Amino acid sequence: MAYPTVDAPYGLAPCNLIGGQAFAGSTRMIPIASGTATAIFYGDVVRLAAGVLVKDTGTATATPVGVFLGCSYTDPVFGKTFRQAYPANTVAADIMAYVLDDPDALFKVAVVSSGTTISTVTRAAVGRNVPLVQNAGNATTGNSRVAISTATATTATLPIRVVDVVAETATTGGTAFTEVVVKWNQGMHQYLNATGV
User: Fold this and answer.
1) Nearby residues of 175 by Cβ (< 8 Å), 6 or more positions away
2) Three-state helix/strand/coil letters over the chain
3) Strand partners of residue 99
4) pLDDT given for residue 152 in this prediction
5) Predicted local confidence at residue 2, as pLDDT
């Protein structure tokens, strides 16, 4: 079976941990304040602010605590509810997000030239840093549309480090790739940053 075509960004998708460690699906539950005005989608980059979770909207800089993988809360009509995405302005006293907060996590992510236009990078991107590209999430699926830019650099403050390419996404000729494996750049993750939040 052929690898599926990558036709749109899908956020950061956990794949494993640094050093080949397996990602066992472990998450931390972090509260979202009732009435938070910004929707958060599966695969979005998130951060802590005053002890609660918010979407990290950074591009060239970010201070992530991890990646959002769904939430639960008590709906006044339907009772206990589990969602792929956090709907903006949800009012509930018990909103809890499932967050992959391991600083060693690796993620697959799509490469875009801008917005949601899929593009490619070569193997030369491995070891370089890149900015995030923030796009509105998909309200139908609940999935993020965050991606990374083709603009790789050595800039130390960029939030994402490319660790590998996804070989199955090689374009004709096999030298360019539409997906890569990434990690948080050194010191960007809130648990590793010497400055507290």
Assistant:
1) 122, 123
2) CCCCCCCCCCCCEEEEEHHHCCCCCCCEEEECCCCCCCCECECCEEEEECCEEEECCCCCCCCCCEEEEEEEEEECCCEEEEECCECCCCCCCCCEEEEECCCCEEEEEEEEEECCEECCECHHHCCCEECEECCCCCCCCCECCCEEECCCECCCCCCEEEEEECHHHECCCCCCECEEEEEECCCCCCCCCCCCC
3) 28, 68
4) 94
5) 57
Question: Rounded to whole angstroms, how far apart are CA atoms 97 and 76?
Answer: 18
Instruction: State the 10-residue block means of pLDDT for the chain, 197 residues long.
Output: 79 93 90 98 97 96 96 94 97 97 96 95 96 96 97 94 95 90 89 78
Residue 96: name the closest of 110, 86, 108 by CA: 86
- 0.85 surpassed by pTM: yes
Q: What pLDDT shows up at residue 158?
A: 95
Structure tokens at 195: 């400055």
* Residue 65, phi-psi category: left (phi > 0), alpha (psi -120 to 50), beta (remainder): alpha
Q: Side-chain half-sphere of 197: how many Cα atoms within 13 Å?
A: 18
